[in-house]
Design goal:
Blueprint: H1 3-12, H2 15-20, H3 27-37, H4 72-79, H5 81-89, E1 97-98, E2 125-132, E3 135-136, H6 138-141, H7 145-152, E4 166-171, E5 202-204, E6 207-209
Antiparallel strand pairs: 1-2, 2-3, 2-4, 5-6
């Protein structure tokens, strides 16, 4: 949804004015909303590779990588790895959504050798949704109840957030996701590797890591 429409809905419902009339405990929210509405200029982002559609929420640590050892949710996912893995591997292909177009081989006319790559095979990237856009899909699918319970127990997980999701993601060999950026900086993305073949990696910012 376009920011102007979001702010307009907030104003019409009185929510915007209530936030602005609140105490200092919501000062960061006030700054964020003023930047969203254009009343306050958004400072330039020091990292040119971070370009969300929403202004950066002030005061949050914006960095490519976070330390999983100090993230309680990451530790819980790791401790329950076997349960999550077992449910993920029992899913059939009929349960997945095909995201292949987003994972096709990257090409650029400026680098002619990339144009010689064959098209990605069907099913290159598939997703099984547990939460999507803040809605529990697993309540309908019901194929991963133990993982669903683990996810619901994660601390500080805002699963009803409009852009919140929790998915099983599977990519075939040769798949490559194009560089992209989140719409906001309000979330930390956690990856838990289930089955990772040799040669797989992920780049965030300018640093590449493996699972």
């Amino acid at each position: 949804m376009h920011l102007a429409k979001v702010i307009g809905e907030m104003r019409s419902g009185g929510f915007y004015d209530r936030i602005m009339a609140s105490g200092p405990e919501l000062d960061r929210m006030k700054t964020f909303l003023r930047r969203c509405s254009g009343e306050e200029a958004t400072p330039p982002n020091p990292d040119p590779m971070v370009h969300p559609k929403y202004p950066l929420f002030p005061g949050l640590g914006n960095r490519p990588w976070h330390d999983a050892r100090i993230n309680a949710a990451a530790r819980i996912l790791e401790e329950n790895f076997a349960t999550i893995r077992d449910e993920a591997l029992q899913l059939g292909e009929e349960s997945n959504l095909d995201y292949s177009k987003a994972a096709g081989p990257w090409r650029s006319w400026r680098k002619p050798w990339t144009m010689l790559r064959p098209d990605a095979k069907p099913g290159t990237w598939t997703l099984y949704l547990l939460y999507h856009m803040g809605v529990s899909v697993e309540d309908v699918m019901g194929k991963c109840p133990r993982t669903h319970a683990i996810v619901n127990a994660l601390p500080r997980a805002c699963l009803d957030y409009t852009w919140g999701d929790f998915v099983f993601s599977a990519m075939n060999g040769g798949a490559h996701l194009r560089a992209h950026c989140s719409i906001d900086n309000l979330r930390v993305r956690i990856h838990l590797g289930i089955t990772i073949p040799p040669g797989c990696s992920i780049r965030v910012g300018m640093e590449t890591r493996t699972w």
